[in-house]
Amino acid sequence: MLDRAHNSPDLPPEIARRRTFAIISHPDAGKTTLTEKFLLYGGAIQMAGQVRAKGEARRSRSDFMQMEKDRGISVSASAMSFEFGNYWFNLVDTPGHSDFSEDTYRTLTAVDAAIMVIDGAKGVESQTQKLFEVCRLRDLPILTFCNKMDRESRDTFDIIDEIQENLAIDVTPASWPIGMGREFLGAYDMLHNRLELMDRADRNKKAESIKIDGLDDPKIADHIPADLLEKLREEVEMARELLPAFNRQAFLDGTLTPIWFGSAINSFGVQELMTGIGDYGPEPQVRPAQERQISPDETKVSGFVFKVQANMDPKHRDRVAFVRLCAGHFKRGMKLTHVRSKKPMAISNPVLFLANDRELAEDAWAGDIIGIPNHGQLRIGDGLTEGEELHFSGIPSFAPELLQSVRATDPMKAKHLEKALTQFAEEGASKLFKPTIGSGWIVGVVGQLQFEVLASRIELEYGIPVRFEPTQFTSARWLSGPQAKVDAFVKANKGHIAEDHDGDPVYMTRLQWDIDRVERDYPEIKLTATKEMMV
């Protein structure tokens, strides 16, 4: 009998049934389609909006921003909550585009596990590898879904070998594909010893499950051609000899990933994956703070902001802080202390999300992700507690790789532009720098697509057409060191100094030579490419 999730006996049942996870993948591996089908099986939506379909059907539920809808890629992270069987799932959809990897990194601070989606024809791609390394740094357990098996795919053993070699993790097959491409019939569920057969006629129909007593059961021949059946028996026997069996502790430790094979667009393998998350995935875990570790079964509520999304509803010019609850039982109307300002906040309109649909959250538990509408008081990294001063750690901000100056095409709108740029910087969509000399603004991003998204959002949400133009600077570094030394350095290097949107000093560089000069001439000044967003 397989080891199902045996949660800590100390956890209240409502916390023990929470599963909070993210989906990571290379662009185009099928992450958004898989998210759709999760919502479909969770009863949260009636029709899946396929990414490559036409018109309204193409509008995927987790891609709500206008540019995402136009391009069919996810560039911001959405949180979605729904019930599945006895479990309550909190799914965080991460940006699939590499230019938005910082948003993904922050998202991974708020989850307890990740699903890695790979394309059966392409295997482990570059973005998948980068995101996997982030998961490993965070010790996140990983479930793998090999997608697009209904197309021509690589050999199953080749895919598993590549994951083991490139990602240095053991792989155990939770299912084994029966054929591939046009011959793909379904999969053999190796955890429960049953056949799952795909229905190609109806993409939104759940797979037909046929219970069998092992692969020698005579009734299998009614469903699978003889040649495919012989191949399936051989491969499953080899897999059982050569690959490790599923072990929940090894999975939770991050040394073993179970892999399911399926086709998200055909709804195949999705339900089995979801069952795997529920039965074997981790319940809400202990979270690190500077002061101490926070256990989910503590009675007092605490949580942290991992994302801020401005203008989720452009008509209301709102801002919503996404908060991961780390401990306790939250109830609407509670007063929580905003740790950075030390002021109490009455949380009167917290929301649960289904993509951009919201529902008032009367209560929530450790592990849940709630949205708190606000007018700018909450920033990424902020802690909310019932009075205790807790500073949650591990939420990074990265130095941008591209810098451009920005101006409104209408000079009369310069003041409004400052407000828009500040808002986007606070939600983590970009970095904003105000040079000490001059009156302009410099925007920093990780990838070129972010400039396009920013220009699009500033025009759509604020009605301000803008132009991004090259600047003399190529990178930015945060300053640290003894305060007197930092002050003297800032005074002596005004042409290179700017402030970020938090008011922290930043050294703007043109060449690597600038950084080398500072390290040589100012040994007590430290230039860093990351800043902890712990406030």
From TrEMBL:
What molecular function does GO assign, one term? GTP binding
Q: What is its main location?
A: cytoplasm
- What keywords is this UniProt entry annotated with? Cytoplasm, GTP-binding, Nucleotide-binding, Protein biosynthesis
Q: Which GO terms describe its biological process?
A: regulation of translational termination
Entry's Gene Ontology cellular component terms: cytosol
Protein name listed in UniProt: Peptide chain release factor 3
Q: Which domain of life does the protein's organism represent?
A: Bacteria
Organism expressing this protein natively: Algicella marina
Tr-type G domain residues are: 16-285
The listed locations are: Cytoplasm
Return the similarity comment: Belongs to the TRAFAC class translation factor GTPase superfamily. Classic translation factor GTPase family. PrfC subfamily.
